[in-house]
Predict the structure.
Amino acid sequence: MPKTNLKFIIVALTILIIGSATQAKADKVTDWNAVASQVLLNTGRGNANGVIDMAYVHIAIYDAVNAIDGEPYSVFAVRPTSVPPGASAEAATVEAAYRVLIDRFPTQSIYLNNQYSASLATIPDGQSKTDGIAVGGEVAALFLAARAGDGWNDATVTIPLHSGPGWWVPTAITPPVVQWGAVMRPFAIESPDQFRADPPPALTSDEYAADYNETKRLGSAASTDRTSDQTLQARFFTEPAVPQFTAAIRQLSMDRGLTLSENARLFAMVHVSSADACIGGLESKYHYQFWRPVTAIRNGDTDDNPNTEADPNWTPLAATPNHPEYPSAHAFVTGSVTEVLRQFFGTKKLEVTLHSNVTGTDMKFANIDEWTKVVDNARIYAGYHYRTSCVRGGILGSKVAKYVTRNYFQPAEK
């Protein structure tokens, strides 16, 4: 082989290696997604409430970055009064995220202030940085003002509960969780009940009996039918949901080499869709108030179904969350997230890796449909849900995501 050709090949390989290393890189959007996730962990809001919390952060980031980019995509909520040429999108991202988080979580000020200072310190000082900070700060302020009175975190919301066969019984002495989420103003969908799930199966139906007996057999703490791998799956997804799936999407973003602007749009799409799926899903939960397996199986002799034998001592593998069973929250959140990923990347064949600190293990998926199936099964193995609840929860989440991505975050009309 001639020396010049060998030299050419070496140079080409070097470029490829450097290019690959450059692609797998975090940016300010993924950095502050991680910061927000940590705040949720710090405050015990890693599940349904945290799903909604994240939307505030990423809407502000998106509208700030989109404005600096010249609005190639539609404005989601607010537009700054001015955008100086050359304003730093990185600085705007940091400022927008910080201002929203410090407003929502003032008790996290020490952690957030440290992250803010460190994050801004990596951006060169100058007019670009100053202007970016101004844009990000204004967008955050305008957006928070626009959301005033939307019902976020309103602890005064109390939804009347029912009693009798089929009706949910709280599984803890504390008030039912995230009742406010069922009635708050959504971010993109028209109302919380726009995508209300169909009613759960009738207690006397064959479908209900099949659901009941599957969860009774596989979701019991004492199950002899559940395999060790199925037990691992159940425990894997008791990890706080938001930090778990956001970490996976951050890694996917880096693997795909997305730019800061692309990440601003992707993460806003993910978090608006999952937040509204959560609002719609919670509305369905508190509308139907369907009983959890831990109540149903212990009282199977009251449902008038000859195929549901009661077990007064039945206990689920994992402690049941304190909100109604139908539809599954993990399913409607996962359904919305995976639908956004499918639409954003144009394929279901995405390599996604989830990690669980509960089990200390990873799960790798080559197709996002596999992700949704494993989540559905895991909720049954944990003793939390019935099959129908998981399937219909996923459908609700997917419907919301399709609505959001069809009506928002589209290329702007010029």
Summary: Residues 1-23 have pLDDT under 50 and may be disordered. The chain is about 55% helix and 0% strand. The two ends are 54 Å apart (CA to CA).
